[in-house]
Every structure is written in C-alpha cells, then in structure tokens.
Amino acid sequence: MGEVTCPGDKSISQRAVMIGSLLNADIKITGFLNGEDPISTANALNKIGSSIAIEGTEVNIKKRVDPFTSSDGLVDLGNSGTGMRLMMGLVSGLGLDAILVGDESLSKRPMLRVANPLNEMGASVTCEEGMPPVNISPGQITNNFLYEMPIASAQVKSSIILAALAANKKVSVIEKSPTRDHTERMIRYFEGDIESKEHNSGNIITYNPSELSSKPSYEVVGDFSSAAFMIVAGLIARDSRILVKNVGMNPTRSGLLHVLKSMGGKISIKNTATICNEEVADILVESSDLHGVDVKGDIIPIIIDEIPILSIAASFAKGTTLIKDAAELRVKESDRLAAISDGLLKINIDHELFDDGIKINGSDKDIDDLVEIDSHGDHRIAMSFLIASLRSKNGIRVKDCKNIFTSFPTFLSSMKELGLSINEQT
Ligand code: S3P
Fold it and tell me: Using CA positions, which residue lies closest to atom 9 of ligand 1?
C-alpha cells in the first residue's frame, strides 16, 4: 500500500503568518506550506515590518520592536490571490500606504470585490480597471460595518475581517452560502471574539474588538486541496490502495469527499483529531468504479478548488457528471472552465462547456495517444492532467508546470511515493 503525508494547508499557512504578525509576540508555526504563495505573503508582511523567518516547514515570527510601517517599494504577492486580497484588508486596517503587485496571472484577477467593501468600510483602496496594482493609502476604518457579500468568497470575507481585526473595530459579514472558515477558527483559537451564526442558507459572522492571546506555537494541518489530487489518483488508478496522512478535514473544505463517495469512491477516514481548531485525519482510498453525479448549488464554494481534479474523476466515471453554478472558476489562476475543457478535448473526453460549468461524459477506456496539455500557467490544471496520465497508455505531457510550486512543492515526490512516475523536462 502506498502511503504519503499531505503538505501544509496553503490558506491556513497564509492566515497564520498574517494573524501571527498581528499577535506581536514570538510564535513558532509548524507544518507551514513552504510553497511560493505562502512565501510571497510572508515576504509581503516583512515589507511592512513583520519579522518572519522561514526554515523549511517551520516559521518563526518575532515580536516586533517597531510598529508596522508603510512599505517603500512595491509589495509583490506573486501568483497569490489569497495573499493579495487578504493583505488589502490587513494593510487597510493598519492604516498604511502600500502598492500591491502580482505576476501576470494575478495582474488579471478582479480586485474590486475586495476594494469596494473595504472602501465602504472607510479604507482608501484604488486599482485601475479593477485589477492589480492595488494602491492603498491610510483611511479610517469605521465601527459596526455590515457587509452582505454578493458572491460566496472566503477571501472577501477574510479581508474584511482582517481589516476590522487590525483596526480594532466591530464588523459583520453575511455570506449567502458557507465558505472556508479558517480565519474565524484561527481568531477563535487565539481567543478573539468572533461568532458565526446560520443566516438563511449561509452565515453571519461578527467580529467584536478583542485582545488576541498569543500562544507559543501554531500547527498547520495538511491541505485538503493537495490531498484531493492523491485521493482521485487512488480512485482512478487500477489496483491501488493508498493512505494519505494528515489531511485537513474542515467541513468547509472537504466537500469533495461527499461528492466522490456519492460517485462510488471507496474512501474511509481514520485517526481523526483536532489540531489548533482544525480537524485532521488520514484517508484510505482504493481503486473504484465511479459513476457520474450532478454537482451544483451551495456545495460549489466549498469544493471550488477541487473542481479541476473532480473533472478528471468524472472523465473516468461511468455516465455523465454535471457541474453548474461554478462561474467563479473563470476568474481563478486561469479561466479554469476553459482550461479544463481544453485539456479534456486533448484526451478525447466528450463534454459540453457552459458559462458556469461543464457536463462531462466519462469513459472507461484508457487514453491511447501521447498528448500534450497546456496548463495555462495554472497549478491545479497542471496537477489534474498529470493525474489523468494514470489512465493513459502512452503518457500525458503537461506544459508549463512551474506554478505547481505555488501550492504543492512536493507534488512530484509525493506522486512518486504513490507509484506514479513523472519525468521533469525543462
Ligand atoms: C481561498 C478562497 C477561495 C479559494 C482560494 C483560497 C482562501 O477563493 O479559491 O484558492 O484562502 O480564502 P475565493 O474566496 O475567491 O472563492
């Protein structure tokens, strides 16, 4: 049986360096994802006066001697949408000047979804044509701001909460459907006053100004989104049985497990525990005869990052899988719906693309020809089609895989441990 340990969670690692910096005490973070996105976020924080040192998966944040400062020079968030959007809130809440920039992909992503509510809240954030660079100057964050999000976004929610946390103001955010709640859980872990109540089909989250208490350390659990690639690999490979250890099981992240089980996936959960207010477990997966399902509505925000790899599971499932209400995929690191369709076309999987989703007619046949897939510079598209090669007779070549380092730097070695050999060509 193959066995592999899941690397640290990207969303939680980024929040840990942000909230860890606000605690202003010495704190050690373990299990940190040493990937490009969390590193960009840590570097951005150091630019405004944090003292964060990264050594592998261990991070040490030192108590600051000086207050946070406006950054001279650009603050570069690389490929990280989470880094940029959450920093917009944090920098605004601290009342600093900064210009946030990103790479080519991030420079095309929408930022008004965060800039608009922050400005309504009293911040001063501008960006031309709604995209980076983002200019932030000191504003005056108001007390008691209430915001109902038009889209279900954990980044928007977290940005607003971080602005309030840094400015020491009360805030409430309404989400129409549940989204990942790591920010809320982490604030609660450090004894901040934040509550989440069910509201219609979503939640209303209220942060009340409160002193956070530091702790000597914080442990980041494994990233469900990275585990998802290994889980689907285990399901679609012939004769496989694998154990993925240290998987973050937060219910606002692990919705894909329900989908895969409803497709007939043989998945069992072992050794559940709670670490720093986040659930974690080991997941045992066996080759399965999958069948298609419909996936739409409120589950979409909590499986949003897993839809590329779900599309691969659907490609090798019997019957049709229909994914709808997922227009947000169009504004991720790439237009993921178009990128998935592009790749499926190459591997001969019959499908139909919609504005907000895709219908996939699975096939139980293996892929015959050696094909070349364009990742569109997107880490999750690249990893998804590399996993698809498990069902290919002559291999799949995926172009432009460097962004795998943003979220899953140990992807190649983990896949090797599970028995999938991937050759790297530069
Ligand atoms: C994230 C939230 C999601 C997700 C992204 C990480 C986060 O984005 O797609 O990879 O860490 O808050 P949205 O909030 O835009 O849905």
Answer: 305
Is the CB of 276 within 6 Å of ligand 1? no
Mean pLDDT of 259-288: 98
CA dihedral 39, 44, 45, 50 (to 10 degrees): 90
Q: Which residue in the block uniquely carries the two structure tokens 């499986």?
A: 303
Enter the tokens of residue 349: 């999987």
The residue whose C-alpha atom lies closest to atom 10 belonging to ligand 1 is 305
Q: Is 264 exposed, middle or buried (0-12, 13-18, 19+ CB in 10 A)?
A: middle
User: Angle of helix 112-120 relative to helix 81-94, nearest 10 degrees?
Assistant: 20
CA distance 34 to 404: 12
Give the orientation angle of helix 81-94 with respect to helix 36-47, to 10 degrees: 20
Q: What percent of the chain has pLDDT over 70?
A: 100
Total length of the chain: 426
> What pLDDT, on the 0 to 100 scale, is given for residue 416?
92
Pick from 54, 50, 57: which is nearest to 20 by CA? Answer: 50
Burial 19-35 (b: 16+ CB within 10 A, else e): bbbbbbeebebbbbbbb
Q: Is 82 in the pocket of ligand 1 (CB under 6 A)?
A: yes
pLDDT at 72: 86
* CA dist., res. 4 & res. 415, Å (int): 9
Q: Domains of the chain by range and CATH?
A: 2-129+139-212 (3.65.10.10), 224-417 (3.65.10.10)
Give the separation between CA 82 and CA 223, rounded to whole angstroms: 15
Q: Identify the pLDDT of residue 364.
A: 87
- pLDDT score of 419: 87
| Residue in the block written with tokens 């897993």 | 306
Q: Is 397 in a helix, a strand, or coil?
A: strand
305 is an active site residue = yes
DSSP assignments along 303-335, one per residue: HGGGHHHHHHHHHTSBSEEEE-S-GGGGGSSS-
**CB burial of residue 426 (10 Å; 0-12, 13-18, 19+):** exposed
Ligand 1 mean position, distance from CA 301 (Å): 9
Mean pLDDT, residues 284-307 taken together = 98
